[in-house]
Design goal:
Blueprint: H1 3-6, H2 8-13, H3 31-50, E1 51-59, E2 71-74, E3 77-87, E4 94-101, E5 113-117, E6 120-121, E7 126-127, H4 131-134, E8 137-141, E9 150-152, E10 166-172, E11 183-186, E12 189-199, E13 206-212, E14 225-228, E15 233-237, E16 241-245, H5 249-254, E17 257-260, E18 275-279
Length: about 300
């Protein structure tokens, strides 16, 4: 017999062991905030992962751009966003800082071109109309060089196909109604446009920087002649009456340039940077020139 049997009074004093189950009471009110915090953290992580390189673009005028809102686009697809805008140290430029998406990292290279798309209305076309409601955005075209983080933005939308057309300078005594974007015609067909206008180094003339699209570059030879087609050309003859000549409605409103090339096999192909005089009106013989050049199909 054991002690508890010999001494029943001891058994009564021994307390019965009880197992207490502990439960974790998590207030239901915290479920939603915790879930929201997890989702927010995941979204922040995804957002950070999507960011690629930081770049800086120097513009003369950043009007309309907004940090945290203005997108950077390529072929109409957003690939980044403007994150900060400030003046340069010399207060001559606006420095636009932007983050590109990681998928677009390869677009920030030597030769990449950036410009601001704003609405432009002309006789022949309307561009950037969508920015009236959404505000300006930064468009870009990637280069093919080494990786780069600092760029100088263009002040006007580039129109050179693949940025590899022929670039020449036309020197004029007067500007007339020409401006950036004014068309350049060959036999009435627009083959290029005015890219920029500046005073010559000695301020004695006006230098009109022109590009001709790559597929039409062979039309320009060393003997080519250029002239204004701005406004109306009126001629009155006693027997033929009044003659009115205008290259197009666009040239009537925005100015324009036309050129002709002679049938001279000694003429060499024009090179980038060549300077040609810009005449006020064409000579009669220029309209009779009929050289033949192979024109590649448009890509």
């Amino acid at each position: 017999m054991n002690d508890s049997q010999n001494h029943p009074e001891i058994a009564e004093e021994l307390a019965e062991a009880k197992v207490k189950q502990t439960s974790w009471n998590f207030p239901i009110v915290w479920v939603v905030p915790v879930a929201a915090a997890i989702v927010a953290g995941y979204l922040v992580y995804q957002h950070v992962q999507a960011f690629g390189p930081k770049i800086t673009i120097k513009f003369q005028d950043a009007s309309g751009l907004k940090a945290g809102q203005t997108p950077i686009k390529y072929r109409g697809v957003p690939i980044g966003q403007v994150t900060a805008i400030e003046l340069s140290k010399d207060q001559q430029y606006a420095l636009v800082t932007a983050h590109l998406q990681s998928a677009a990292e390869s677009t920030a290279r030597e030769g990449s071109v950036f410009w601001i798309v704003r609405p432009q209305v002309g006789i022949a076309n309307i561009t950037g109309l969508g920015t009236v409601m959404t505000g300006p955005h930064v468009e870009m075209s990637p280069g093919a060089g080494d990786a780069k983080s600092e760029f100088i933005g263009l002040e006007n939308s580039p129109m050179v196909a693949e940025f590899s057309g022929l670039k020449i300078i036309l020197r004029a005594s007067r500007l007339g109604t020409l401006k950036a974007g004014s068309p350049v015609y060959y036999r009435g067909v627009a083959v290029g446009a005015v890219d920029d206008i500046q005073l010559s180094a000695d301020a004695a003339s006006v230098d009109v920087h022109v590009y001709v699209k790559r597929r039409f570059a062979k039309l320009v030879r060393s003997g080519s002649r250029f002239w204004h087609v701005s406004g109306l050309d009126l001629n009155f003859g006693l027997f033929r009456g009044l003659e009115i000549k205008v290259e197009s409605l666009e040239s009537l409103a925005a100015g324009g340039i036309a050129f002709a090339t002679p049938n001279d096999p000694k003429d060499t192909a024009a090179k980038n940077g060549m300077i040609f005089p810009l005449h006020d009106r064409p000579e009669k013989e220029w309209s009779e020139w009929r050289p033949k050049f192979p024109i590649p199909p448009e890509k």
